[in-house]
Amino acid sequence: MTVNDATRKLVRQRANFLCEYCHSLEEASAAKFAIDHILPQSLGGSDNPDNLALACQRCNGYRYNFTTGIDPQTQEVIPLFHPRKQKWSDHFIWSTDGLRIIGVTPTGQATCNRLDVNDERHNEGSIVKARRLWLQGGWHPPEEDPRQQT
Ligand SMILES: [Zn+2]
Fold this sequence. Notes:
By secondary structure, the chain is an alpha+beta fold. 29% of the residues lie in helices and 13% in strands. It has one domain. Bound molecules: zinc ion. The site of zinc ion has 8 residues, from helix 2. Zinc ion (ZN) binds next to helix 2.
């Protein structure tokens, strides 16, 4: 029931040391990232690498045992973004200033909402403040991520 060290290493490297939900960089964060079970163990999810993702403490905490979120535009219940089966850039973009994640599909929007990826409901936007510093440091956002066009 515990993920072994070799698997942890694989998950970290595969994720390029980024949270697979909010693309925070582990090195720039105070807390070590968690190995997230995409289908939670409480719902029968396995320790197979196909069911694992690297997640920062905030995303891991907000995701908890949830596998769905609400699309704020339609109020529909939508499965959360699945880092193994879906591609981040198909569902999310960065705002022009690189500080906020914008969901561009129902999956993206439901995930942004559930994980509060821009700290709009919690922490007084502290993740946005951290991103501003990372941006100044040249670590953020990841180069391959799309940004909103003006
Ligand atoms: Zn995260």
